[in-house]
Write the structure tokens for this entry.
Amino acid sequence: MSSFFNRIARHFSSSSSIGVTSAGGGGSNSTLPANTELATVAAGCFWGVEHIYRKHFKDQGLIDARVGYTGGDQSNPSYSRVCGGGTGHAEALQITFDPSKVSYRTLIEFLYRIHDPTTLNRQGGDVGTQYRSGIFYHSEEQKRIAEDVTRMANQNWWGNKISTAIIGASDWWDAEKYHQKYLEHNSGGYECPLHYLRPFKLPEGYPAEEDSSQSNDSKPAPAATAAAAEEPKAEL
């Protein structure tokens, strides 16, 4: 069933207690810190996606993570308008990361371990195009890696049923301030039950070629390798 009305109810209860834009869709800020890159992904309700990425990549290359809206055809969207499904935006996460500490490949492999990419325009009980699975690449190299990881995950993890869209990054709008680090500030808040780390292992011989940007001393973060496969499902 659609969770639109429940999400709107949470919106009001919470509020009472590529271009990168400021919170709520304000002015632009396209400047990145030196030696950093962006990764933009969508995997359903952005609260849980942000929470699990922050937890697993803290002190392992994640510099910042912002929830927001992308992939739509309207400017300055609000949460209620996006939840209505009429703006075309996806609830998404934009990660600023240090590629010398964590590779883009690792971040995308992790995406396919923390949600179900086989259900088109839904994640669990959250239904609508705003909950679609997507990778919004910022360069041709990111596109190549995203496609390679998707082939691997499709063949080895998800039974050739992946529906994740891989498209070029477009305008980004930060979600309203109270959405940022939502589950850190609201420990009992809503979490999509499909956002957990799955015990998938990388197949032998993958990847066939190392990313050209990844040196020998910048190995994938442990959280996204097979060594982390035994982590309990319930822990976010």
